[in-house]
């Protein structure tokens, strides 16, 4: 089981505990949630504090996933 946490404007979302095998499957599960689907194309994803871009990246039980929306600075 992996844990998915949300940062920034998405931090109102409760963390999720999911059984998924890779990043592609994770995106498919998250895309089913209307409040998240619009963000998925612009958010970075970190697995155990490392940004991952590979859709085929394998996930294992105990991984911590962070969904990181873009940030504007001033």
Characterization of the model:
With 74 residues, the protein is α+β, with helices and mostly antiparallel strands. It is built from two helices and five strands; from the N terminus they run ββααβββ. Strands 2-1-5-3-4 form a five-stranded mixed beta sheet, with no helix packed on it. A hairpin with a 2-residue loop joins strand 3 (44-47) and strand 4. The longest helix has 9 residues, at 23-31. The termini are far apart. The mean pLDDT is 93.
Q: The biggest beta sheet, please?
A: 5 strands, mixed
What's the tally of helices?
2
| DSSP E strands, number | 5
Averaged pLDDT, please? 93
Task: Identify low-pLDDT runs.
Answer: none
Give the neighbour order of strands across the main sheet: 2-1-5-3-4
User: What is the gyration radius calculated from CA atoms?
Assistant: 12 Å
Order of helices and strands: EEHHEEE
Strand content: 25-35%
Helical fraction equals 10-25%
